[in-house]
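Ticket 4471: requesting a sanity check on a complex prediction with fructose -6-phosphate. Repro inputs:
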Amino acid sequence: MCGIVGYVGNRNSQNILIEGLKKLEYRGYDSAGVAVYTSEGLQVKKSKGRLANLESKLGETPLNGTIGIGHTRWATHGKPSDVNSHPHTDNSLKFSVVHNGIIENYMVLKEELAAQGHVFVSETDTEVISHLIASLYEGDIVKAVQKAVSRMKGAYALGVLTEHEPDKLVAVRLSSPLIIGVGEGENFIGSDIPAILEYTRNVYILNDGEMAVLTRDGVELMTIEGNFISRELFHVDWDIVTAEKAGYDHFMLKEIHEQPKAYRDTMGSRLDPSGKKVVLNEVGMTPQQIKAIRHVHIVACGTAYHAGLVGKSVIEKLARIPVETDVASEYRYRAPIITPETLVIVVSQSGETADTLAALREAKRCGARVLAITNVVGSSVAREADDVITTWAGPEIAVASTKAYTSQLIAFYLLGLYLAQTLGSQDDAYIAEVIAELKELPEKVERILAQSEAIKNVAEQIATHDNLFFIGRGLDYAVALEGSLKLKEISYIHSEAYAAGELKHGTLALIEEGIPVIALATQEDLFEKTVSNIKEVTARGAHVFGIHSEGHYELAKAVDEVFAIPATLPLLTPALSVVPLQLLSYYASLARGNDVDKPRNLAKSVTVE
Ligand code: F6R
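Returned structure tokens:
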């Protein structure tokens, strides 16, 4: 996720900006840049890659000045490159902007500004903001920014600097975090507290729809409509590591809690305001090409493979096209039958997994069209695929994938609906119903997260065991596989996920007195059958923790402990039922004293075969 730093004071701003950006590196980024007001006017330096690249450019020709803005970019609109890096300027080079978030109506604004003669050099949505502010400027930067934001739709945190008023730094927040650091004769902006913690512990936290005007001598807070606000300063008493985790004990817990936002961002402008259809502009297949698809292969590794198992059910149910899901390391060596009528979907959070990339290349070699679902714009997978659906989960730092997995599920729901509406395989009313239910998922995840304490109690019990089982049928089985993987990787407890109906064909022999079994029973049409399978294990002494959808409270009679997830369409339950399993693994790992964010033997990005 992008990082913003801004400074106005009496010190050399370049150094403060770079040091601040270093403190935001943990958020993930692919390029960086700074703009400083110098004796020669506003000057910008930016560079693709690590901050060291930018530092070496600044080492050759430093920018001397006491007011500036800096940014680390995590690509959204446009690949990582020098030109797409922030800060962005207008054509006069007198206005400079750094931005976190997404401007949803940037194409409309861009066309309007281009018609007025503005020339754009980057592929970003941010560049539009600098041009818009420049076009609205009439001698007052604060008013120009206010007018500009009234035209912008989306989510943003902004830092704005103009050569016309070189002692002012303007900051705005709408749905993207931004804080103001207050010092002695110097003031700061930061997208996160670590960026400024070295210089001051006194901050104002901007709320949505608020802005700040910073000079050397003070900070004025106001709404974006221009009404002044008075606010108490907040004194930060955490250390830098705690600040990076935004108060959570671990990145994994932070990322689990970021899921409602990741769902909203991934759906974002892809849901038509009518609520009746999905808009996937990034999928370049024509309706004829979609109609020509005879089979779909979903290929991925680990957690992304588990998302692909859900994706199989979603596409088969919605689009009525046969789907196979395969692990990437097997796929390419089993001579899969790939034809030009095969759509191959590769799923990869990092977009750099060697096995997935090799499968992608094999699919392309055989003439298939490849669609990627990835979380990293400009990654190898994103660059090599024909179409890309980006999941807007933001960078995932913890090795155990949580918000990336659930965002992949959202991407599959969107894709399934898109295929269905193009193929006419579902009626409009059903598509509208699924869309309406999708929109409710973020709030339902919040309700699950509010009950974390109940899951923690169960986790502390299972942490004392060395073996356990996850069981479920249909989509519950796909989620059971993911729950089991999560538990293994961070708690080091051995677990197996089984299709509940398959237990009696062998695995039942392992069920003995007291063994924990996590049973998912959220699928309406399979509920009774799952309860029968649960009875097979309780009869042999298993201690069963059941997960059901609200309404099916009778499960309590068949198991030892229950947890209810909010009701939704059966097809959408994986996006809810996995959340208690993520929490279960987290708390079990914690109870065992493990390094939750960095489990043994594992790496975040697996770039070897
Ligand atoms: C588990 C996990 C891994 C990854 C797998 C694929 O929590 O994160 O199983 O899902 O290594 O990684 P990506 O999605 O980056 O291709």
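Notes from triage: The chain is about 35% helix and 25% strand. Leaving this open until the requester confirms.
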